[in-house]
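TICKET #2291
ISSUE: user wants both folds in one file
ATTACHMENT 1:
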Amino acid sequence: LIENDMWLTPPLLVVIVAFLTGYFYFTSNIDQQAIFDQPIVTEDHLPFNGYTIINESSLDLLVNLRNTENISQQILEIAHNREPRVIRGTPAQEWIGKWNPNQVMKLSEKGTWEVSMQKGSKIFVYANKEKSMARLSQVKFKPIQRTSMTMKKFFERAGNTSSKSYVYFSKDFRDLPPAMLHELEPRGWLLPPALHSPEIEVQENFTANMMWHLWMGSGGVTAQTHYDALHNFFIQLYGHKTFILSPPTAANKLYLYPTNHPSNRQSQVDFTSPNSTLFAHFGEVPGYKITLSPGDVLYLPPYWFHRVIAQDMSISVSQWSDSEETHLFWDYIYNQPLPFETDWQEQEMMVALQVYLQEFQEALFQDQGWIQSNVVQQRFLPLFGDYPKKSNHICHSDSTKWTQFRSSIDEAVIARVEETIEYFETLRKLDKRHGEGVLTLVFAQYVEVLCDAFLKVETINPFLQ
């Protein structure tokens, strides 16, 4: 208009503004519809039992990158806000079609690959048999069956919609053939958010480990609700996946397995038939429901819960990178010295650990019953039931000997709590909206890691109760 000497008269301006407003409203609704209004799941998936699905309009999840310059910076700003977002307009759009079943079969090296397989149940619950609680007779878990097959056989199984056998394949990019990885280049537009966080000073040698991972599987395959402590950019390449997202503050309604359990970070609840006696608050879990199409990038902030359901045969990739929280926990909190002596007997260690945890929960939450409410009742009681408290249990003993012992370590305990608590306070600040939920998850992990380090695994449950 300016180049042609056409001035915007008021009537013309009104018409143009009205047109543009309607256009952007319409295109915005098209984008939202593509995300939210696709057929979600067939009834037999039953993924939404227990969730209070929040109206999608109450959380604007969709971001269109209209400026192709500084894409990396735009994505970092999204991650800095610590809210889930579906991002469109990224270079991932150019990856559509490069990894479909035919291309993967063609590019993958000949031979067999290790595949996860389940018959009957679509829900995959990860289990690490190396965890210390795996040795307890009361702990029941079922490792996922693994078998070897060619990629051709895998996709035949994955595409068989009438089969009651479900296959799932995941692999680190470092273990994939170079010819496959070449198809997804360049990948440098996705940067690790933790290295660019203004809230935390990182050590000079902190590199924010970054991992790329491939996911493929049958339609219907469901990952049990869980959280990751990392930044996660999830990219859909083929097929469709539905995510149900819940904020970190939902932790106490999802009843997680303990940190040292084979299925840690995952919910104990059977979503197809939840036990309302064991899991009384499960029905209060908020859930944001979205469906990804090829080319969509989902940003998942650290500690956000997600349940993932493949709508059809699906191929996806993730980029994980260390979060500020993992940096704080493992490089600072975990390395803090503790006010314990190496020559203490088991009973002395147990009393010292009790004093330390009691002092810590009071200082951090101003709540002497925090561990009971957030660790014992949420994680241990559903697994083990009530432990009969005995009057002669060492931690409940009021004998003069143990009263004197507690007094002798009080000063050292308080000093150590004061030095360590500042790192937990930093966790509160990292996530402005959900920091309390993150703090709950990280402190519960801290409690359980300490118990695992200083107590016999069979004494952890009675000790905490």
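ATTACHMENT 2:
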Amino acid sequence: RDFSVNATLIASANDNRGGSLASTYFCWIQYIQPRPKRCRPYLRRTRSQDNRTPRRSTKSNANTGGCPIGHTDVAPPVSSVPVIAPQQTASVSPTEPTVPVVQPAAKDKPITEKPLTLRFPPDAAARGAVCMDGRPAGYYWRRGEGVNATKWVLWLEGGGWCYTKISCEERRGRLVQLGTMKDRPKKRNVKMYFGSGDIGSNPDFHSWSHVLFVYCDGTSFLGNVEKNSSVFIAASKEWRPLYLRGYRVLQAELDDLFNNNELGKATEVIIGGHSAGGMAALIHIDQIRERFPPTTRVTGLVDAGLFVDYRNGSQHGRTHCRALEGGFTYWNATGLHPKCLAAFPPDEQWKCIFPGYLLPFISTPIFMIQDQYDNWATKNMLG
């Protein structure tokens, strides 16, 4: 409540490769500024010849905080404000300023959530659609209600990346929750990214069908390494397998949704993601779009997924960009946009991971939300 956000909607133009970004929109959060102070008349007591009456101060005050003379951004002392019981009339002397009666706030309405249910594709293990620890991958979903049952939100979870054997071993061994389906709850409430089933907090999408693709591979759903490696788990002092199969995970889960959960009958679909999942949504959106008939309306929504190939900033930023470039080979990155791959020579096809190079080739309409002063980007890229 103490800040106002100014946002600008920018429609991008054609680039020099002949691709078009006309269907891509960016919502840049330009800056956040404090709201102007609320200046109120500052009443102080002045003595008149006949009696004591409150008069507006005509002298400047050191604590006016930039307010006009006779006003202040500081409320009168609590001791000078008479206490008025709700729905009662208080007797206020002529020398006291009148304070409006504030009614108690009404109690919030109870929130009725509709959790998403965990589901595993029955053929996940046979197809090699497994998390980093080798356990079959799964997703959360909830069928919609009424006329909105054929409208779907497909959301790809975020959570960073691993780029090399060392970083993937660390992710698999230390950041266990990012590489497994172990101990995942059977039901999960997703209150953000349109996932809430409560009409009060999510009035537009609460009755849509929802899918949350769990991120358990660290490759933005691009990994397709046939032969697994091993990682030493310090806690248990044993070697365990390490898999990079994100692309297989996404395809197996999409197939299950189309074959068993009527996703193919969708009339409207939003494909989105946040952070690394947002980048994954950009990478895969056109190929997911091809699964639907032309009559299905498909739109992208990407939150904080615009990771740029910027190497003139901090050392960490240069390392991050080189790491994603190396991840293209280490992951055996599969599922990148075919038109983007065709536009670059083999030694530069890694560029199709970065949205800045990829966007001109995407044909599905996309709305992107990107903070111009993104906390992660300013810290890790610019330094």
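RESOLUTION: both attachments delivered.
EXTRA DETAIL ON ATTACHMENT 2: The longest strand covers residues 24-34.
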